[in-house]
Every structure is written in C-alpha cells, then in structure tokens.
Amino acid sequence: MHNEKSPFSDLIGKMIVTKEGKRLGFVKDITFETQSGELINIIIKDSTPYTKNLNLERSATNDMLIPYSAIIAIGDFVIVSEEDLV
C-alpha cells in the first residue's frame, strides 16, 4: 500500500483502474469513519460499462463504491485489485 500521505484533493478526479488495466471510472469522493478517520470507500463517477457489470455496492444516492481495502496503489492512477471487489 502507498505509505506517503496525499492530500484528499490529490485523489479527486484520478482514474481508477484494475491491476490488469481495466478502467473503472474516476474518484468522485471518499467515505470515512468520522471518529477514527479510517477510509471506507471510494465513490466512483463516470463509471464505465465494465464497472456496471461488477455488481459493486452502492451508496444511498446510488453511486458505486469501491472498498478502500481493494486499493493496491495510488499514483497517477488509483489501482485496485479486481479480486477484492467481488
């Protein structure tokens, strides 16, 4: 996992891809536990047709969610493990 701290604003708008290179969409927002600060999910915007077939959990506003635990690395892209999404 990426150990350097990044400002929240650095994550917004980054493309989300699987480690196999499949595009999932872009980071719209994140959810976190307010008391501990633990990150819970990334909210996807502009999801791809491939993403819509993954049967991801959805928020109350019907946004697709990626669990933070599925993130492998954060750099130019947010890279996730597709195995951890299903």
What does this entry look like structurally?
The protein has a single domain (8-84), classed as Roll (SH3 type barrels). It has two helices and six strands; from the N terminus they run αβββαβββ. It has helices at 8-11, 49-52, and strands at residues 15-18, 23-32, 39-45, 65-67, 71-74, 78-80. Strands 4-3-2-1-6-5 form a six-stranded mixed beta sheet. The chain is globular. The chain starts with 7 loop residues before the first helix and ends in a 6-residue tail after the last strand. The mean pLDDT is 89.
Give me some keywords for this one:
single chain, 86 residues, mainly beta, SH3 type barrels, 6-stranded mixed β-sheet, 6 strands, 36% strand, globular
Task: State the gist of this model.
It is built from 2 helices and 6 strands.
Low-confidence segments, given as residue ranges, are none
Annotated CATH architecture: Roll
Main-sheet strand order equals: 4-3-2-1-6-5
Query: Could you spell the SSE succession in H and E letters?
Result: HEEEHEEE
CATH class: Mainly Beta
In CATH, the topology is named SH3 type barrels
- Count every beta strand, where a strand is a DSSP E run of 2 or more residues: 6
CATH superfamily name? PRC-barrel domain
Radius of gyration, CA atoms, in whole angstroms? 12 Å
Oligomerization category of the chains in this entry: single chain
Distance between the termini: 20 Å
Given the structure, what is the number of helices? 2
| Helix content class | under 10%
What portion of the residues fall into strands of 2 or more residues? 35-45%
Arithmetic mean of pLDDT: 89
Which structural class do you get from the secondary structure elements? mainly beta
- Counting structural domains, the number is 1
The dominant shape is: globular
Describe the biggest sheet? 6 strands, mixed
